[in-house]
Write a structure and sequence with these properties.
By secondary structure, the protein is an all-alpha fold. Helices cover 71% and strands 1% of the residues.
Length: 343
């Protein structure tokens, strides 16, 4: 895996050099330096799970056959397209949320001289993806399917999920009665699950010559996994160690439609609901402390543990029911990476 990761990082360097020499744009020295610094700051700094999962999944679909250098390069390039997409989402997400830190360092837009230029930087990052696909996949029979996958399915669905999230939490219209498990599920399904889980496997399936419409069951299992992953994320925002997860959770202050608050609303009596309505979405540490105290009273940690074990059982039985051992291996590998994670 360490060897694979170092190969993966080498491919980043190749793609970055190509983008900085892209003939479609006449760079000045200043603009080239800006884009290079912006890419280095935002693209390769995360855990790289989404990108590496393309190579993992493709390898498992080949059922033990050793990959050629060309296959490793192409799977890595697709993996980096997902990391680029993630960087684009995060740069803009941090501005919309007014976040301070990301991956243990200041958000890009918080840096001196960056500010709102970060909006355009996000758009630049998004536009790097078709440049990479065009250069390396244009002659492949699945090129159009790849473009479709990145453009329509994933970007449109993710942006639409983000929209539901944002309009549910409009400032000055804080209304907890809008929050429910079904709204939470819809936000998560579109905002996170498609691009974080389905996309990596879909890329690997296309590279393997598969038709995506023949794998709707795989898609559904990955969406369920993505929802479970986001519920974990909501849990870690409140109960995770900031040093481990690389950021300070602010879901309570930000009035987020988090699984924790939705579950708390479901379990609360009228008196407890009143505490939530009065304190949720306020930045004052006293208000935050009251919400956390109520979570403790309602045993939200216990509710999460129960949810986690039931999700794991349901996902495992769904995976084991799949006819292809290679696809089972891909799905088990995904589940193994996220089950009981701490960051």
């Amino acid at each position: 895996m360490a060897d694979l990761k170092s190969k993966f990082l080498q491919v980043y360097s190749v793609l970055k050099s190509e983008l900085l020499e892209d003939p479609a744009f006449e760079f000045t020295n200043d603009s080239r330096q800006w884009v290079e610094r912006m890419m280095d700051y935002n693209v390769p700094g995360g855990k790289l799970n989404r990108g590496l999962s393309v190579i993992d999944s493709y390898q498992l679909l080949q059922e033990g056959r050793e990959l050629t250098e060309d296959e490793i390069f192409l799977a890595s390039a697709l993996g980096w397209c997902i990391e680029w997409l993630q960087a684009f989402f995060l740069v803009l997400d941090d501005i919309m949320d007014g976040s301070h830190t990301r991956r243990g360092q200041p958000c890009w837009f918080r840096l001196p001289k960056v500010g709102m230029i970060a909006v355009n930087d996000g758009v630049v990052l998004r536009n790097h993806i078709p440049r990479i696909l065009r250069k390396h996949f244009r002659e492949k029979p699945y090129y159009v399917d790849l473009l479709d996958l990145f453009n329509e399915v994933v970007e449109f669905q993710t942006a639409s999920g983000q929209m539901i999230d944002l309009i549910t939490t409009i400032q000055g219209e804080k209304d907890l009665s809008k929050y429910s498990l079904s709204i939470h599920r819809r936000i998560v399904q579109y905002k996170t699950a498609y691009y974080s889980f389905y996309l990596s496997v879909a890329c690997a399936l296309l590279m393997s010559g598969e038709e995506l419409e023949n794998h709707i069951d795989v898609k559904n299992l990955l969406i369920e996994m993505g929802i479970y992953f986001q519920v974990q994320d909501d849990y870690l925002d409140c109960y995770g160690n900031p040093e481990t997860i690389g950021k300070i959770g602010t879901d309570i202050e930000d009035f987020k439609c988090s699984w924790l608050v939705v579950k708390a609303l479901e379990l609360s009596n009228e008196e407890q609901k009143k505490i939530l309505y009065e304190n949720y979405g306020k930045a004052d540490p006293e208000n935050v402390a009251k919400v956390k105290a109520l979570y403790k009273e309602l045993d939200i940690e216990g509710a999460f543990a129960d949810y986690e074990s039931k999700s794991y059982e349901k996902l495992t039985s769904g995976i084991e029911g799949h006819p292809s051992k290679a696809v089972q291996a891909v799905l088990k590998s995904f589940l193994g990476k996220i089950y009981k994670r701490k960051k």
